[in-house]
Amino acid sequence: MSQESIVLGGGCFWCLDAAFRLIEGVDDVVAGYAGGDTTNPTYYSVASQTTGHAEVVKVSFDNKKLDLNEILDIFWVVHDPTTLNYQGNDQGPEYRSIILYSSDEQKQVVESSIAQVQLLWDDPIVTEVKKLDTFYPAEDEHQDYFNKNPQLGYCQVIINPKLTKLRQKFQNKLKAA
Question: Is the per-residue pLDDT at 49 higher than 90?
Fold first, then answer.
């Protein structure tokens, strides 16, 4: 198995966490914080908009089953990369679209993917792209949030429609039930 990981932010981390957990070849998803300039951020410090961090997920995948381009294709589908610092009702820099790569090879794939996906959008892609410095895992209650709380309003109204769209567009990439 050849393991690779990338850190992605596209709104509330609960949405991306739930989406990537459905994908065959994704071995682990960890909700967390990255892209900021303080150490050991917490959910509340990030929400205060004083740390510079975004809510993100670290997606670890077997690149023999699923390549980075496929991971990015899913990322583009489950959020709007043309909105600066918000997704839906979630507003603030902690909800920005961001990709944090770990190698020059990943950076090249990311830049190529952005160029391709830009052709699909009328508005410019505003996704921030930068090298990953430090990833901080979020608190336990934020890990696998959707599967632990499927009945909650946010999960029903915000996350479920994204998962429905994902299931429709990527049927061939879903894990067996």
Answer: yes
Residue 79 · residue 16 · CB < 8 Å: yes
DSSP readout, 4-66?
Answer: EEEEEEES-HHHHHHHHHTBTTEEEEEEEEESSSSSS--HHHHHTT-S--EEEEEEEEETTTS
Per the annotation, the verdict on 12 as an active-site residue is yes
Q: Which of 6, 7, 8, 12 is catalytic?
A: 12
Residue range of the domain that includes 84: 3-173
SS3 71: helix
Query: 36 with 11: CB under 8 angstroms?
Result: no
pTM of the model: 0.96
Count up the domains in the chain and report the number.
1
- Here the CATH number for the domain that contains residue 53 is 3.30.1060.10
| Residue length of the chain | 177
pLDDT in tens, 121-167: 999 999 999 999 999 999 999 999 999 999 999 999 999 999 999 99
What does the pLDDT look like over 120-131, one tens digit per residue?
999 999 999 999
48, 130, 62, 168 alpha-carbon torsion, rounded to 10° = 70
